[in-house]
Design a protein that fits this description.
Layout lengths: L4 H13 L21 E5 L2 E4 L4 E4 L14 H11 L11 H12 L5 E5 L2 H16 L3 E5 L25 E4 L4 H11 L3 E6 L15 H13 L3 E5 L22 E4 L10 E5 L4 H6 L10 H16 L2 H22 L4 E4 L6 E4 L6 H11 L3 E2 L14 H21 L7 H8 L1
Parallel strand pairs: 3-13, 5-6, 5-7, 7-8, 8-9
Antiparallel strand pairs: 1-2, 2-3, 4-10, 9-10, 11-12
Protein name: Aminopentol aminotransferase
Keywords: Aminotransferase, Plasmid, Pyridoxal phosphate, Transferase
Cofactor: pyridoxal 5'-phosphate
């Protein structure tokens, strides 16, 4: 980086007033050296850090940027709504409009509830599954991420065994493992959580087998339990419906977040009539859950999802990105694993167990104005253009050449190595 003095100064100030200097998934503690922590502007496909350095952003705020940062139509909807009502003593009529819009779009849904974060929505799903028949056991795939609540946060600090006492883990995409877990739960099975595809951090992604997805539906029905699809990360990036429509399976509940307001804070839980009564039995709320401005943004985002070719465009752009990287890797003598949907690309290097090659590659790309992740799936957005891909591949081509020259001297991240070992 040519200039990062403002970022360094902000880090020093943050260290005094924020535990650890920063926290959560947007902390750069595990990112390669030189990655900025603070940003001052986001527009379209670009983000600008505190020192004025601009990047083509392939993380999209870890998902919320679907249509492009500060999309003009969504920005106008936000601005117009801000002049009338946002968070108030009761919700605006937009909550009904948005519930109708989502129920009208999502095949399995008969009702909708709104909150703020994906973790809110998955927690609500957990509670409703248990309220449905008064059962306790919930099946969850090993290492699957469903938010940062105590029942499923990936870090153990502050978590008690009692917080996870009734969870039973199974291997994703393994029908027999799922059936064994259901047998273990027996008549106490309340629900099954399913990711739309395997998107664990640090590992290759994989799509669900149709047999596995159908088994999850069958088992839920046999045990009179609820099937939950956590679409927080993948929602509207795989199809215009619940992601498991791609394998012909409809859940009872689906959790949504990230893209709903194109960056505005809003998430949702959708359910069918089978789960409606249980949803009325739980008490969940938040002072800002019913705010109107994010709902206005979500309604406009839903309109763009329905009426534009955003998904088809992202797919074409994603295929170009994947094809270009693959060709560059081969020409420079690197093995590259690209997995998952092209709209949510995961890029890992062969023979790189400590991620030193991936780190070096992402550092080299960042210096040339492209923000990539060495260990997390990335996100395409609808504002991406062929020009963006061309500029990206120019930067990654040079990055491959850099790490080819310096391969012997690349070093792993001590923080990431310690986390993986733990």
């Amino acid at each position: 980086m040519a200039n990062n003095s403002q970022d360094r100064a902000l880090r020093e100030r943050a260290a005094q007033v924020i535990p650890g200097g920063m926290y959560g998934h947007q902390s750069t503690a595990l990112m390669p050296d030189g990655f900025p922590q603070f940003f001052t502007k986001a527009e379209g496909t670009r983000i600008t850090d505190a020192d004025g350095n601009q990047y083509i952003d392939y993380m999209c705020a870890y998902g919320p940027n679907l249509m492009g940062y500060h999309h003009p139509d969504i920005a106008r909807a936000i601005s117009a709504q801000q002049t009338s009502i946002d968070a108030a003593t009761g919700p605006s009529p937009l909550i009904v409009d948005l519930a109708e819009a989502m129920v009208g779009m999502i095949s399995h849904a008969d009702w909708a509830m709104f909150c703020k974060n994906g973790g809110d929505a998955t927690m609500m799903a957990l509670m409703i599954a248990r309220a449905y028949r008064g059962k306790r056991k919930v099946l969850v795939a090993k290492n699957a991420y469903h938010g940062a609540m105590p029942w499923n946060t990936p870090r153990p600090g502050g978590v008690l065994p009692e917080d996870r006492a009734h969870l039973i883990y199974f291997d994703y995409n393994d029908t027999q493992a799922l059936e064994d877990a259901a047998n273990e739960a027996g008549n106490d099975l309340a629900g099954i959580f399913a990711a739309p595809f395997r998107h664990d951090t640090f590992t290759d992604q994989s799509m669900p087998d149709r047999e596995y997805a159908q088994a999850a539906r069958r088992i839920a029905d046999e045990y009179d339990a609820l099937l939950v699809v956590d679409d927080v990360r993948a929602g509207f990036r795989m199809c215009r419906d619940c992601s498991w429509e791609t394998v012909g399976v409809r859940p009872d509940l689906s959790a949504w977040g990230k893209v709903l307001g194109n960056g505005q804070p809003i998430s949702a839980l959708l359910g069918n009539d089978r789960a409606r009564e249980a949803a009325t039995k739980i008490f969940v709320t938040g002072s800002y859950w019913f705010a109107a401005v994010p709902m206005a943004a979500a309604l406009e985002t839903m309109r763009l999802i329905r009426e534009t070719d955003y998904l088809e465009h992202m797919t074409v752009i994603g295929q170009s990105f994947r094809k270009g990287l693959a060709e560059q890797a081969v020409s420079n003598g690197f093995g590259l694993r690209q997995t998952g949907p092209v709209t949510l690309p995961m890029v890992l290097f062969e023979d790189d167990p400590d991620f030193r090659i991936g780190y070096g590659f992402c550092q080299a790309a960042l210096k040339r104005g492209v923000y990539l992740s060495p260990y997390h799936n990335m996100f395409m957005n609808a504002a991406m253009t062929r020009s963006d891909i061309a500029l990206t591949l120019e930067a990654t081509g040079a990055a491959f050449e850099d790490i080819k020259r310096s391969r012997a001297s690349l070093k792993p991240s001590a923080a990431l190595t310690a986390l993986i070992d733990a």
